[in-house]
């Protein structure tokens, strides 16, 4: 169900996909150590056969094409400056400050902002394949620039950064879950060969009473991303 939700490539649907996947994985990890090899193999086969679901790149491209594309067209088709401002009034008004009031904005100026926002989305798309640390630095520079240059981008873009962080967390959790299935089936001897997509080697591993813990080098909001497999213990 989660993957089907994300297939429309709308950002909110994709975030719901991630949330449902995390919930299901959290439940299943508590049962892995009670499953035999046949059931673990069946679970792996089921995971491999899931629909592709949505992607953050496709969702950003959709927003760029539909949202920014619509705004550019609406401004271009406006009869005059007043109508152009009215069309995007909430965004323009939110961008105004005491230090930088916007008592009058021309259609030409709005068009320049929107053209810049289109380019900003294109720049964001290039950051998606960067490592979290590299992306964070470049994302900060992009935010600083748009706050100074483009009121439209300053309002629209800030929410996209956290979406990248959630995407990375989802990538790590899915990789951890697949690794947990392998360990539950074959034992801890398989740990060294299970690569962390956000580290230089394998996942971290620790046995616990009734199960084990796996963790990635990825941190999400100050905490490492991990899975507790089997009975929930505080080991």
Structure description:
This protein has helices spanning 2-6, 11-29, 37-48, 56-76, 81-87, 89-95, 107-127, 132-149, 151-156, 160-186; strands at residues 204-208, 211-220, 223-230. The protein is mostly helical and 235 residues long. It folds into two domains: 2-54 and 166-230, no CATH class; 56-158, no CATH class. Strands 1-2-3 form a three-stranded antiparallel sheet, covered by helices on one side. Helix 2 (11-29) packs parallel to helix 10 (160-186). The longest helix is centred in the last third of the chain and has 27 residues, at 160-186. The mean pLDDT is 86.
Give me the count of strands. 3
**What is the molecular shape?**
elongated
Residues in helix, %? 55-70%
Low-confidence runs (pLDDT<50, min 5 residues)? none
Q: Which percent band covers the strand fraction? A: 5-15%
CA radius of gyration: 23 Å
Adjacency order of strands in the biggest sheet: 1-2-3
Seen as an oligomer or otherwise, the chain set is: single chain
What structural category arises from helix and sheet content? Answer: mainly alpha
Cα distance, first to last residue?
Answer: 34 Å
Q: Could you state the order of secondary-structure elements as H and E?
A: HHHHHHHHHHEEE
């Amino acid at each position: 169900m989660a993957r089907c939700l994300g297939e429309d490539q709308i950002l909110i649907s994709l975030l719901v996909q991630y949330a449902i996947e995390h919930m299901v994985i959290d439940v299943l990890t508590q049962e892995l150590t009670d499953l035999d090899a046949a059931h673990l193999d069946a679970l792996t086969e089921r995971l491999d056969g899931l629909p592709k679901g949505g992607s953050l790149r496709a969702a950003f491209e959709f927003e760029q094409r539909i949202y920014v594309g619509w705004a550019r067209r609406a401004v271009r088709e406006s009869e005059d400056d007043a109508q152009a401002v009215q069309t995007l009034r909430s965004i323009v008004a939110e961008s105004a400050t005491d230090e930088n009031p916007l008592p009058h904005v021309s259609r030409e100026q709005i068009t320049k902002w929107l053209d810049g926002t289109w380019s900003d989305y294109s720049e964001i798309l290039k950051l998606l394949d960067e490592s979290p640390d590299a992306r964070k630095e470049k994302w900060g520079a992009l935010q600083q620039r748009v706050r100074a240059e483009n009121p439209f981008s300053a309002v629209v873009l800030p929410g996209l950064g956290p979406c990248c962080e959630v995407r990375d967390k989802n990538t790590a959790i899915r990789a951890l879950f697949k690794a947990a299935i392998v360990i539950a089936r074959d034992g801890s001897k398989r740990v060294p060969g299970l690569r962390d997509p956000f580290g230089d080697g394998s996942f971290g591993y620790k046995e616990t009473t009734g199960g084990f813990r796996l963790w990635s080098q990825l941190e999400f909001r100050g905490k490492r991303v991990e899975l507790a497999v089997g009975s929930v213990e505080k080991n």
